[in-house]
Amino acid sequence: MALSSVSVDRPSPRALHRSQDIASPARTAFDLACEVEKWPVWLSFIRSARRADPNAPLGLGSEVALRSNVPGDDEQLFEVDRFIPGHQLSLVGAFSVRRRIDIRVEQKSERSRLVVRVDYPTYGGFLGKIIDRLTRRRKLDAALTDALIHFKGLCEYDREPDALLVDF
After folding, report:
1. What per-residue confidence (pLDDT) applies to 151?
2. How far apart are CA 106 and CA 6, in angstroms?
3. 118 neighbors 15 (Cβ within 8 angstroms)
4. Using CB atoms within 10 A as the burial measure, which of 26, 68, 140, 168 is most buried?
5. Which residues lie across from 45 on neighbouring strands?
């Protein structure tokens, strides 16, 4: 019997997948990624983000409510389905497992790499996929690229806050 070689962790062809090298330790980047309430600052396609229980620590099973520009205007509930401290934070839609946001931080010596994957369903069959690819997906792809550059700036700025104030 042949086994499927498709991994659950393999990005879907529909998913947007971006990465960015960051000149800061992985712990700093991961701590910033876990501050859910600050996601709208660096993820421009998210309008608001909040934890359902702000008093509980973020971890496996935590619920996060997101209001985003893609794919709709309503607030959507996500659940943390993978959490590896210092490395991975993965959210899956509470009502649709096809909605996923995966944030992973990889340590590379003194530098780190942020990898973000966003997967959302498209409806409307073949025509709906084409329209999505030409409109919303392009905007989301550009926003995700800009978001990682913004995240890099936030991480590196926190690392050396006085470096920007020095006169040359």
Report:
1. 92
2. 23
3. yes
4. 68
5. none
> Residue 145 belongs to a domain with what CATH number?
3.30.530.20
∠ CA 85-86-88, nearest 5°, is: 75
The structure tokens listed for 122 are: 């498209």
Percent of the chain residues past pLDDT 90, beyond the cut: 33
Q: Evaluate whether 34 touches 49 at the Cβ level (below 8 Å).
A: no
Of 88, 105, 90, nearest to 22 by C-alpha is 105
| Residues of the domain holding 112 | 17-161
Q: Residue 2 falls within a domain, yes or no?
A: no
Count of domains observed in the chain: 1
Q: Is residue 168 part of a domain?
A: no
End-to-end distance of the chain based on CA atoms, in angstroms? 68
Q: What is the pLDDT of residues 14-52, one digit of tens each?
A: 678 899 999 988 998 999 999 999 999 898 888 889 999
